[in-house]
């Protein structure tokens, strides 16, 4: 059934692939974000066994983020060139194996090596996943489907991971926990191989003489930056990812560290329960705001998300340990709006700025910039600030990044199909007949 005809859209494939992508990205989140929890959980001996500090935790998150960013761009281009299946399925297998190997690490050097490879494998899931989701989605559901797909990294990685890790660590050693969470990815990779389609190859076969589909040359790569959002989106996404990954890397330490170390002194289970606000809020934000941006526009949704995320995160930094309910609510709203900005920018904004045939490449470049700086360098800086000035300094650093993201997002160009069509109709009505 032709995907070019929206009246005969293949909704069966659409929902099938969105479900698989959602589970895959959820596992990416689980494998990626369970490390800080295991590292900082009082029931875990990982930090003591490997001699790791909070600064090392920020460094590990940073290196993984930088590897993720580089790979998202490079392998996004390869997915446009070679096909979705050839990139996506091996990536899922490799990041799952690296999760298991994290449990086998015997030194910080080995752990860094494993986590960098994990980042290289997870990057393609982000960029190629956005392309697959957009290609499978009816245009009117583009934001909604990207929201469903992307919100799972928050739900699994930041809502479920703290609960899963804290409970498993009460029973098993940290080595075993890493290995247990690696198993589902292998199953998903096998299923994905048989389900995923190759629209670019179908386009090439339909062209007379088998001419290559667009997006197959390096000239196309250098030419994909013509749209204003191709330049603005990566800059502002750095700020959204900076806020998210600073919190992901250091929040558990902030919640559990004693007052003398600048923390709130919560016990492990209570801290894990508060931490779930990041995942629950993030999942709702990543789902709801991209869907809402289909209606109100990408720019308004992004600007609103940034400023509210900054306000709630600052309020969280001023709250004490007396009421964990207050902490949860403030963290919930901050995460909801922070992840909303990320999902809009890395999903529909990136896709709508891409030239034909360059969807994965464009998404990969936007994610590369956001991950390398926001997900890579920001946690390293924040970890250093936490070591020198206390853990609350890392939260202030994330707040400043969100404010900067709002300022940069002012330069975005509106691309939501409903808004663009409305503006186009308005211009036609305003133009007098010749």
Find the CATH topology: Growth Hormone, Chain: A
Uncertain regions spanning at least 5 consecutive residues? 211-215, 426-431
The CATH class label is Mainly Alpha
Largest sheet: none
Helix/strand/pairing category: mainly alpha
Give the helix level as a range of percent: over 70%
End-to-end Cα distance, whole Å, is 41 Å
Tally of structural domains: 1
Kindly report the average pLDDT value.
83
Secondary-structure element string: HHHHHHHHHHHHHHHHH
Q: What is the CATH superfamily label?
A: MFS general substrate transporter like domains
What is the CATH architecture annotation? Up-down Bundle
Number of helices: 17
Shape: globular
Write a structural description.
The model is unreliable at 211-215 and 426-431 (pLDDT under 50). The protein contains 17 helices and no strands. The two termini are 41 Å apart. It is mainly α and 434 residues long. The chain has a single domain (8-198, 224-430), classed as MFS general substrate transporter like domains (Growth Hormone, Chain: A), CATH 1.20.1250.20. Helix 4 (84-102) runs antiparallel to helix 8.
Q: Helices and strands in order, then pairings?
A:
Blueprint: H1 11-40, H2 46-50, H3 54-82, H4 84-102, H5 108-136, H6 142-169, H7 174-180, H8 183-195, H9 199-206, H10 218-222, H11 228-256, H12 268-296, H13 298-318, H14 324-352, H15 359-389, H16 391-409, H17 417-430
């Amino acid at each position: 059934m032709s995907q070019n005809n929206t009246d005969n859209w293949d909704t069966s494939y659409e929902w099938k692939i969105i479900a698989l992508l959602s589970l895959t990205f959820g596992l990416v989140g689980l494998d990626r974000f369970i490390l800080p929890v295991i590292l900082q959980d009082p029931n875990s001996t990982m930090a003591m066994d490997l001699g790791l500090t909070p600064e090392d935790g920020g460094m590990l998150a940073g290196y993984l983020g930088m590897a993720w960013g580089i790979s998202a761009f490079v392998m996004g281009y390869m997915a446009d060139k070679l096909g979705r299946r050839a990139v996506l399925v091996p990536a899922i297998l490799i990041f799952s194996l690296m999760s298991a190997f994290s449990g086998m690490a015997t030194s910080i050097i080995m752990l860094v090596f494993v986590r960098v490879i994990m980042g290289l494998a997870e990057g393609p899931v982000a960029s190629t996943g956005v392309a697959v989701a957009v290609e499978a989605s009816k245009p009117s559901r583009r934001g909604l489907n990207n929201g469903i797909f992307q919100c799972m990294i928050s739900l699994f990685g930041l809502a479920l991971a703290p609960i899963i890790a804290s409970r498993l660590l009460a029973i098993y050693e940290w080595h075993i926990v890493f290995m247990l969470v690696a198993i589902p990815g292998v199953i998903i990779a096998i299923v994905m191989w048989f389900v995923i389609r190759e629209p670019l190859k179908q386009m090439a076969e339909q062209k007379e003489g088998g001419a290559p589909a667009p997006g197959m040359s390096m000239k196309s790569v250098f030419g994909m930056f013509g749209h204003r959002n191709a330049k603005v989106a990566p800059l502002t996404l750095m700020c959204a990812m900076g806020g998210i990954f600073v919190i992901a890397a250091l929040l558990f330490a902030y919640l559990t560290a004693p007052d003398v170390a600048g923390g709130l002194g919560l016990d492990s289970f209570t801290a894990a329960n508060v931490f779930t606000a990041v995942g629950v809020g993030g999942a709702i934000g990543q789902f709801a705001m991209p869907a809402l941006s289909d209606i109100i526009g990408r720019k308004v949704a992004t600007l609103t998300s940034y400023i509210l995320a900054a306000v709630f995160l600052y309020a969280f930094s001023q709250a004490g340990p007396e009421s964990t309910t207050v902490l949860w609510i403030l963290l919930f709203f901050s995460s909801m709006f922070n992840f909303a900005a990320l999902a809009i920018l890395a999903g529909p904004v990136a896709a709508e700025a891409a030239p034909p045939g360059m969807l994965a490449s464009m998404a990969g470049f936007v994610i590369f910039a956001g991950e390398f700086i926001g997900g890579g360098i920001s946690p390293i800086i924040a970890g250093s600030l936490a070591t020198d000035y206390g853990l609350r300094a890392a939260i202030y650093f994330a707040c400043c990044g969100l404010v900067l993201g709002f300022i940069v997002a002012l330069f975005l160009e509106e691309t939501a199909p409903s808004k663009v069509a409305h503006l186009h109709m308005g211009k036609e009505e305003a133009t007098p007949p010749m």
